[in-house]
Structure prediction request, 263 residues.
Amino acid sequence: MNTIVCIKQVPGTTSVEVDPGTGVLKREGIEAKMNPYDLFALETALQIKEVKGGAITSITMGPPQAGEIIYESFYMGVDEGYVLTDRKFAGADVVATSYTLSQGIRKISNYDLIICGKQTTDGDTAQVGPEVAEFLGIPHVANVGKILNIGKDSITVQMNMEETLEIQSIKLPCLITVEKDIYTPRLPSYKKKIQTKDKKQLNYLSIKDFTDSNEQNYGLNGSPTQVERIFPPEVSKEKIMLEGTSEDLSEKIFSLLVEKKFM
Ligand SMILES: Cc1cc2nc3c(=O)[nH]c(=O)nc-3n(C[C@H](O)[C@H](O)[C@H](O)COP(=O)(O)OP(=O)(O)OC[C@H]3O[C@@H](n4cnc5c(N)ncnc54)[C@H](O)[C@@H]3O)c2cc1C
Prediction:
């Protein structure tokens, strides 16, 4: 059972500036870490490997320093790692990011299952996983809270929907995005760090390694999203005093919530 895990390097701080012109986060020189949700994706792959064998490959798209999180994944037990990096990938929106990842995965090619985190702590769209699967033309399931069974040709999972639990069986190869807490992520191992140091090499791929090397499909060129305006959430300190019986008050609160579109 060969698994690919998509992991992303995200800012390790909340004080990140946004370029007002392009709407792109200014990431240079800021502290970075692995997207916390991707630790659950990695742990899922490691648990599957313990039962089914095979190899785990981690992949990230980002600047060269995103290789740091690939090393971190080695210290947890991942076998191989890829960094998709090219100046032409800069300014990628969700579509271009997913397309780039799908091209990298086509290059790696030998996989039964792809695992993504639920979402990231910076972009936060939760769209990359399903879009990667669509570009690869493979089935996908999101919100996976449990792996129930892995057969020869299919995987059965439990999806944690908002109010219900749904069981789905889908054919391999496929992509799943996993919920926080599917398994408790292990800590990177000091022993593995010593074993890995200077022995495991990162694989770097750029646009010229892909089947599709048309620059128009990557980075800002390949991004249909237009950022209209970026602004910090408005904080209002307005107070309203309501008076009346419990019934009056509940009706007034209800109307106010509807008026402010909270309901
Ligand atoms: C116009 C525009 C320009 C942008 N320019 C930049 C830019 O220059 N640099 C930049 O970093 N961001 C940029 N972004 C943000 C970038 O589009 C998103 O961060 C990216 O598409 C991932 O989306 P997300 O963070 O919402 O991921 P989600 O969909 O929330 O992530 C879900 C899962 O997908 C996987 N995943 C997501 N991203 C990656 C990745 N890069 N590598 C591997 N796995 C991944 C992980 O498993 C993750 O848990 C830009 C966005 C827009 C709209």
The chain has one domain: 3-222. The chain has a mean pLDDT of 93. The domain at 3-222 is CATH 3.40.50.620 (Rossmann fold).
